[in-house]
From TrEMBL:
GO biological process, one term: regulation of cell shape
PANTHER family attached to this UniProt entry: BINDING PROTEIN TRANSPEPTIDASE, PUTATIVE-RELATED, PENICILLIN-BINDING PROTEIN 1B
Family to which the UniProt record says this protein belongs: In the C-terminal section; belongs to the transpeptidase family.
Name of the protein described by the UniProt record: Penicillin-binding protein 2D
Pfam families: Transgly (PF00912), Transpeptidase (PF00905)
Subcellular location: Cell membrane
Amino acid sequence: MLLFIRLSWKWVRRSFKAFFTLGLLGIIAVLGLLAYAIVLGPPSLSTAQNTTYYLADGEEMEGYDVGASRQWISLDEMPEEVIDATLAIEDHRFYNHYGFDFKRMASAALTDLKAMRMVEGASTITQQYARNLYLSHEKTWKRKLKEAFYAIRLEIFYEKDEILEGYLNTIYYGHGAYGIESASRYFFNKNAGDLTLAEATMLAGVPKGPSYYSPLADKDNAESRQERILSRMNDLEFITNSEKNEAVTASLDYYDHSAEEAKAVGPYFQDEVVREAARLLDVEVEAVESGGFHIYTTLNPDHQKDLEEALDEEFNGAVDIETAAVVMDSKTGAVTAMAGGRDYSASSFNRVTQSKRMVGSTIKPFLYYAALNNGYSPLTMQESKPTTFELEDGDVYSPSNYNSYYANDDITMAQALALSDNIYAVKTNLDIGPKTFVDTLRDFGFNEDLPAVPSLALGTASISLYDMVDGYSKLTGGSPKIQKHTITKITDHRENVLYEYEKPESVEGKKLDKEAAFSVTHMMTGIFDSALNGYMNVTGSSIADQLSRTYGGKSGTTDSDSWMIGFSPQYVMGVWSGYDDNRKMTQPRDQQYSKELWANTMERIHEGLPVSAFTPPGDLRGVYINPESGKLSGPACPEERLVYVKKKDVPKETCEEEDSDIKEIEEELQKDPWYRSIVDWFQ
C-alpha cells in the first residue's frame, strides 16, 4: 500500500512538473509572439487593388462589376443601423475581446472536429479585417495562424473604432462594391448615411456570401438572412419589436444598373471567368473578385461583338424564347465569345455553362466515331425504314424519323449523318453495344449520367452546351488534350504567377483515334451538301446558301430544344435555343433560330480570315462515291460525294457497273418481247 502511495505521488509530481513546464513554455511563446508583433510595428491598412481582367489581346476588360471605386467614410458618417446590424450578425462581442472570441472558437472547433473538416468559421471582425488586408481566402490551418498573428498586431496598434471603420470600408459586398459607402450607392443609389434600417440590415447580410446573399443575385436568400439579422438585433436590444417588424415588411427599391450592364464586354463570359478562377485557385468566388488578382482571359472582343450583334438581329421581335452560344478555338479550346442568354440584365443565368438540356441528334457524331472503331466505315449500308427493335429484356423500342420520312432502302453512314436518320443511329448503337457508346462518350469528356440504352443514340441525355462544344473540339481536333478554358494566366497584385494554362501532355485513360475522328469530322460537312439529299434534304440545307466556305456541323432537335453545333478548321461554335420552362416549341421559326444564329455569327467571325481546309491524317483515302449506292463514282453517276475511308474500305465497284447490268436486262427484254411483258406484269 505504501509503495502504491509513493508511486502515485511520484506520478502526480511528474505530471505537475510537465503541466507547469508546458504552461511556462506557452506563456513564453505568447510573450515572444507579442514582443515580435510589437517589434514589427503597426501593419499597413492599405488594401490591395481590385481584381483586373484582361482580354485575349492584353487590353483591360470593361465590366460593370469590375474595378468599382473604394470610397472611405468615417465611422461617424455611418448610420447606427449599419454598425449595429454588422456587429449583431458578425461579432456582437467585438468591443469586449482582444481580437479573438474564444467561446465562439471552441464551438466552431467542436463542429469542425465532428465533420472532420473546416465547415464553420468563428472569425471576429478583427480577424476578417486581417484576412481582407493581407491574406487569401483559402480554408487552411496555415492561413488561420497567419490571420491570428495579423489580428494580434491590429489589436495592439489600433483602437477598436479604427478597426471597425477599416472593416466597414473594405469588406466586399459583391458586384465590385467594396465598403459600405460603395455598397450603398451600388444597391440603393444613396450615401450610406441615408440608409434606413431595412436597407442597412439587407446590406449587412451580403458579405458572408455576395453571390448567395445579394438581393440582386438571390432575393429569397437575402431576405431570409435580413430577417435573421433583425431578429438578432432585437435579441441584443439594438432595436424594438415594432422596429423589427416594420423593417421586415419594408419594400426596398434597388438601383437599376441595366444601362451600365449594357456597356460590359461579355458579362456571361466574365462570370464564367470568375467561377473558373475560383476552381483553379481553390478559393471562393468572392475571394477572386476581391483578391487584387490580374486575370488574363481568352475573350476575343471582335468575336464577342459579332456574336452579340448576330444574336440581336436573329431574335429581334422574339418574345419568351431564350438562347445560348459559345465560340471556341478549334485547336486549343480557348473560349473566344460567349452569350449565356439574350439579355444579361434580365437574367444572369448562364445557359451555356449552368443549364443541361437534352442534346438530340448532336450526339450522333460521337456514335459514328464509336462505330468506325468497331468495324464500320462511312460507306456501311443499313436499311432506313419503320423498325421495332426487340431488346434483351423483352421490351420493344420503336423510334421514328423526323416527320416519319424513310428511305425504305439501304443508306450509307455518310448519308444517314447528313439526313440525321434515327433508324440508322439506333441500329448502330444496338450493334456496337450501348455500353461501348457510353465508354466512347467518356473519352470525349462527358461525365454526366449516361444510361446505356438504345435511345441514347438519339440524344436523350442532358448535357450542357459548354460540354457539348468542348466534345466537338476534341472530335474535330482528334485529341482529348483540347480542353475548354477561359483563362490563360493569373497573377497576384505583385505579378507573381499563380496559374498559367498549359495544354496537357496527356489525359489519363483517354485516347482518340485521329483517323476515325477526321472521318466523322469530314462526314459532318455533308449536312450542307445537296449531293447527299435523299428521302429528304440534308439538315443544313436551310442555311447552306448563307455559307461562304466549308464548314461541318450537326443540328439537333427535341420537343423543347433546338441545337446547332458546327465548325471550321479554325473555330467551333455551338448554339442552343428553347424555353427556360421546357415548354414545347410549336412554331417552325423556333426550330430555325439556332441554325440562323450559328450561320450569321460564323460568317462574321471568319470574314477576312484565309480559307483553311480540313487536312486528313496519314493513311486515310479520299474517294468520290455515289451517295445512293455507296460505290465509287463514275461519269454516269448523277451525284458524287467525297468521303475519307481506310484503304481496306475503298469500294471495288463503281455505280457505272450497276448501270451496265440494268442495260443488259433492257437489251434482253428487247430481244424477247413476251418475256418482257411477263416482267412488266410482275412489276
